[in-house]
Amino acid sequence: MPTVKEGTLSRRAVLKRGAATAALGALVLGRPGPYIGNAQAATPTLRLLMWQPYAIKETIAAFEDKFKAKFAPTFFDGNSEAFNKLKVGGTRDFDMVMADGFWPRLYFRQGLTKGLDYGKIPNMSGVFADFHPDKFVLLADEEGKNKVAAPNCWGGYGITINSSMIAKEDVGSIDLLLNSKYAGHFSTNSRFEENIALMGILAATKLGTRDGPRPDGKPFNPYQLTDDELAETKRLLIEQKKLLLTRYQDYDALDRLMRAKSVWAAPEFAESYRKLTVLRKERKIDFDVEHVLKPKEGGLGWVDTWMVSADADSERTELAHAWINLFLEKENYVRVVRSTGYGGVVDVRSLMSEDEIALYFQNRSAEASQLHMFDQPSSPEKWERIWSDVEAS
Amino acid sequence: MLLLAGPGVLFILVTLLLPLLAIFMFSFWRTASYELYPDWNLDNYHVLFTEAAYRTFLLRSALSAVVTSLLCLLYAWPVAYFIARHGGRYRLLLVLLLAAPFFTGVILRIAALQGIFGPGGLINMALGIFGMPPIAALMYTPLAATIGHVYLFVPFMVTAIYLSLVNFNFDLLETAKINGAGPWRAFVEVTWPLNWIGTAIGLALVFIPCLASAVTPRFLGGPSATSFGMSLGQQFGETGTWALGSAMGVVLFAFSLLVLAVMGFTVNLKRSGFTGMGAR
Predict the structure, then answer these.
(1) Cβ–Cβ of A376/B33 closer than 8 Å?
(2) Whole-angstrom distance, CA of residue A123 vs CA of residue A177
(3) How, if at all, do strands A45-50 and A96-99 pair?
(4) Chain B residues touching residue A245 (CB < 8 angstroms)
(5) What backbone phi and psi angles, to 5 degrees, belong to B35?
(6) How far apart are CA B72 and CA B146, in angstroms?
(7) Chain A residues within 8 A of B242 when measuring between CB atoms
């Protein structure tokens, strides 16, 4: 019969102790135990529906430490995915949500989020003037009465280019992505919105409708394309598909493809551009890279924002403001841009090198307003049909 | 008896039947700008059967599932046969080794394949060293996706055939030989029919997940490999067209049931010696 060494536990002992612990637990939990109840209440949880790159370990640790709160993120990919989650699943599961472009207004209009109190976000003072609601109006509702979101990072959906392989004269236009000279060396992401919107700008330019009067009386918006423009967009996307090596699924994949010189041009959020630029400086790659933020026909842009869910109670609303404020703190924000590789909305030039200032668009904040901001497609159903036709072609 | 069956029935009801019922119901609804409207209609099915794109996705997926199933079958039979006949006391170990890939997640396994087939992957890097051009057919093509499917699903097929073969009386082959049958005839007339149920289960285990596959074609297949599963997934994610996605789910479910029914008709339980349904 096997003996049990001193200091170890036999199976029977484990069962006995386990049963005793379970019984004790049941006793404590079974009665109205103020001690445990208070302990749970003392650690409020901030539940966020957010983009993964912003879940920065050090920032979260600082927040949890300072506010004695728990940070509970859930990640999503595209705006429509998060919007669907709140729209269909309700707002009770999340206290904060992220979105960009026109989406914060849509969330607010639909009653999914509530207004922010900028007075509780003193670090907004460090944000470039270009990203305050008076200049970047999408941070407030249509009437300008309520601040619907706080800015976070910004960028575009420009084209990153291996300039050793792409001729200088071909750079600067969305048309590059249809140039058969470089067939098999293009890649785009797999999201239907950006693909259709970017090609929609080119389609409207080719049709000559981009600068003319629009059916809705508003300026051109690639997310509000007419049927003719959508038909032309579909044609261009089908033409482009033949020239693609693949649709990249994430930025690691695009980095690999560009480093291997398999892909020479790809529209992207400048993440790969920044990584490759650093690698070039370190002489780890032997080709130059450039990023066309705004092609001559026009470009897509985004300003990521934080919003507070309509169902967040007063305690969690306070916490949400505290999180935003901490996030925008200059010392923390440097880490944000270095970690995410996105353009910074906070002026942290004094804490950065010249190279970093250029890399993180610290001198280019005014360009954000020249880009077409991400928006909800005029008809997701119509866009879905177009994307399916492209994918099936 | 009822008490014993109760938890199982409840589990199936909650986790399988209710979601299926919800999907079935949504398929007759309408989505507009990310909102579901209970306007009962057949529009989603009309779209699925009249729009060429969705037919293309379904045909692509069905073709891929057929090719993958056949390739798995060709690979799995000799392997399962060898293990069952010659594995001796290592049989269990060899079968367990087949499960080794499952120690990691699907994404990781697909990423590993990307690392082998990709432009900067092992194969093309090795070719490059010898001054040879890369094999374009392996980089983001439907062929690469098919290889990925075979890699992912072949253990299911081997296991199903092996489990059938371990219960097979190999002495029957000796009898066939004594009666003048060559090895091939003995296989075709004895081994194959008596193990058809294992093969059929293996085919079902490969065909159905492959039909619904989304991850493999997405990562390996390139821009021309969009599958029914990929398009279906998109309806519930990015595009928010839940009603159409639900109809796609119903079509996929019905198609899978049809395939299972066809396979079921080909199985002679008595001849196969299968006793799982009380047949003797």
Answers:
(1) yes
(2) 41
(3) parallel
(4) 119, 139-140, 222
(5) -120, 140
(6) 11
(7) 88
Residue that has been written with the tokens 């798995």 in this structure:
B72
| Distance to chain B for A322, nearest Cα, Å | 31
Tokens of B85: 């006949």
**CA B168 – CA B187 distance, rounded (Å):** 12
β-strand partners of A346 = A127
Q: What is the DSSP string of B188-224?
A: IIIIHHHTHHHHHHHHHHHHHHHHT--HHHHHHS-TT
Q: What is the mean pLDDT of residues B70-80?
A: 94
Nearest CA in chain A to B107: A249
- Tokens (6 digits) for B232: 């279906």
| Angle separating helix axes A57-67 and A330-340, nearest 10 degrees | 150
Note the ipTM here: 0.82
CATH no., domain A158-298+375-392: 3.40.190.10
- For chain A, give percent helix, strand, coil, nearest 5: 50, 15, 35
Contact predicate A305/A104, CB 8 Å: yes
Contact A270, A160 (CB under 8 A): yes
> What are the sequence ranges of the domains in chain A?
44-154+302-362, 158-298+375-392
Which amino acid is it at B148? G
Per-state percent for chain B, helix, strand, coil, to nearest 5: 75, 0, 25
Model confidence at B104, pLDDT cuts 50, 70, 90, reads confident
Its domain, for residue B199, covers 40-272
Look up tokens 């999340």; give the residue.
Answer: A94
Q: Rounded to an integer, what is the distance from CA A343 to the centroid of its chain?
A: 12
| A338: nearest Cα among A358, A356, A363 | A356
Q: At B86, which CATH number?
A: 1.10.3720.10
Supply the mean pLDDT for chain A.
Answer: 86
DSSP state of A192: H
Rg of chain B over Cα atoms, rounded to whole angstroms, equals 22
CATH no. for A44-154+302-362: 3.40.190.10
pLDDT in tens, A297-334: 999 999 999 999 999 999 999 999 999 999 999 999 99
